[in-house]
Design brief:
Strand content: 15-25%
Strand order of the largest sheet: 7-6-10-8-9
CATH topology of the largest domain: Rossmann fold
CATH superfamily of the largest domain: NADH-ubiquinone oxidoreductase 51kDa subunit
CATH architecture of the largest domain: 3-Layer(aba) Sandwich
Structural class: alpha+beta
Oligomer: single chain
Largest sheet: 5 strands, mixed
Distance between the termini: 42 Å
Shape: globular
Number of strands: 18
Length: about 450
């Protein structure tokens, strides 16, 4: 059976979910759905790229939303965006047209969690272990829809620069651009710092800024003092043995981690306090395999906010989730069927303002206007795996000259994403992980 022309174009252009995971978008668009929901909640503090795209690239974004609706035969499109952005909401309502509605949501974390956003915009609850499609819905983020609307290969990404820097802006930059270039542009205001890639809640600390480059899923570069609370906690979260020792010795089963869990509040079986309890009764070197942790959305709210003792129930739940999946244990969707959202769900949300205060982020300006600055580095290093699935295979040779936007690597019929040259140049080096281009030759 031939592929839908819109879906085929999305595949050829190498479009993936730009919100973080990098799932190939053409796979998602191969199904039919009654509703397309735009995840414009942007619930992580200090990130502003979605708002800037919606403000400055409204036409291409809406074109991408309409093409997505056409591809999946959707009857309506819903733009889920925080109600505090009143001017932007009015702009979108004026431009949206028939079949597209703007739905304001609350200013809480994680409003941008896919399952939470579906509930906030439609009132529907996707049951644990099931996909949004079970409710006739697909969810896509703002930058992904922009890329669909532009109808050209993905060669750039939007990144917000924030934290302890002079230049708090959002930029559209080539894929494969060295992080050092952007950090130099941002002008850190402190001599010693740690680089956070992504948001304060679900991002990661850069292992080495000398080797990191921008990808299709880049979202933010946040400069933090080395002794900042986020840096210290994320470093601990990256040490499973330490996380387990702390949890075994100090958890008093107060259940705040479960009471405030966004998925638990929607009726899902996840209960982080039970993962902590299992940890206490498990030998230190053994993994815990709690099936309910398969419903964890990994938002880190329980580790960063909920626990009054500063423990890491989120990390323990994720460790259990990985071990449970590796053991071949699956969530029993029949016994995990939700009875609906918790009656106190509206009162247990975590306001973004509270989150910023608890994470000591108010010391940084929370803004990121779109800048038109451009970058022309000497070289780009384009990763061959910027997506879920198989790494792309180069279709160019060392010494080849490539045009901007030309395909340089492919996954063929496998799950993954096509890769294109961000700028014109010459192939300088090929490796198993990247294609290096020398520009302007």
């Amino acid at each position: 059976m031939s592929m839908n022309p819109i879906v085929a174009e999305v595949k050829e252009h190498g479009i993936v979910g730009a919100g973080g995971a990098g799932f190939p978008t053409h796979v998602k668009l191969a199904a039919n759905a009654s509703t397309v929901i735009v995840n414009a909640a942007e619930c992580e503090p200090l990130i502003h790229k979605d708002k800037e795209i919606l403000t400055h690239h409204t036409t291409d974004f809406l074109n991408g939303l309409r093409r997505t609706m056409d591809a999946v035969s959707a009857e309506e499109g819903l733009i889920g965006i925080k109600g505090k952005h009143e001017q932007l909401i009015q702009l979108l309502r004026d431009a949206a047209g028939q079949g597209i509605r703007v739905v304001p949501v609350g200013d809480f974390y994680p409003a941008g969690d896919e399952i939470t956003l579906i509930y906030e915009t439609t009132g529907k609850v996707v049951e644990a272990g099931k996909l949004p499609l079970s409710q006739g819905v697909i969810v896509s983020n703002v930058e992904t829809l922009l890329n669909i609307g532009r109808r050209r290969p993905v060669t750039t990404t939007f990144v917000t620069l924030g934290g302890a820097v002079e230049q708090r802006v959002t930029l559209e930059v080539p894929i494969g651009l060295p992080l050092t270039t952007l950090i130099e542009y941002a002008r850190p205001t402190i001599p010693d710092y740690t680089v956070l890639l992504g948001g304060p809640m679900m991002g990661r600390l850069a292992a080495s800024i000398e080797t990191e480059v921008t990808t299709k899923t880049s979202s933010a570069i946040i400069i933090l003092p080395n002794d900042h609370t986020l840096v210290r906690r994320m470093r601990t979260m990256g040490k499973p043995e330490t996380v387990r020792k702390i949890g075994k010795s100090a958890c008093d089963q107060c259940i705040f981690c479960t009471a405030l869990c966004p998925r638990y509040l929607l009726g899902h079986p996840i209960q982080p306090h039970k993962a902590m309890r299992a940890l206490m009764f498990t030998p230190i070197d053994d993994s815990i395999t709690e099936p309910h942790t398969l419903a964890c959305c990994e938002c880190n709210l329980c580790s960063m906010v909920s626990c009054p003792e500063g423990l890491y129930p989120g990390s323990v739940s994720v460790l259990s989730k990985r071990a449970t999946a590796a053991a071949g244990i699956r969530l029993d969707t029949a016994s995990s069927a939700t009875n609906g959202p918790h009656p106190l769900i509206s009162y247990r949300r975590t306001p973004t303002g509270k989150l910023k205060r608890l994470l000591d982020l108010n010391q940084f300006g929370d803004r990121g206007p779109l800048s038109t600055s451009s970058f022309m580095p000497a070289t780009l290093s384009i990763p061959l795996r910027q997506h879920i699935g198989k790494a792309a295979q180069p279709i160019v040779q060392k010494g080849d000259r490539v045009a901007a936007g030309s395909k340089i690597a492919t996954v063929g019929s496998d799950l993954g994403s096509e890769i294109h040259a961000p700028l014109a140049g010459r192939v300088e080096q090929l490796s198993e992980s990247a294609i290096n281009l020398t520009l302007g030759e």
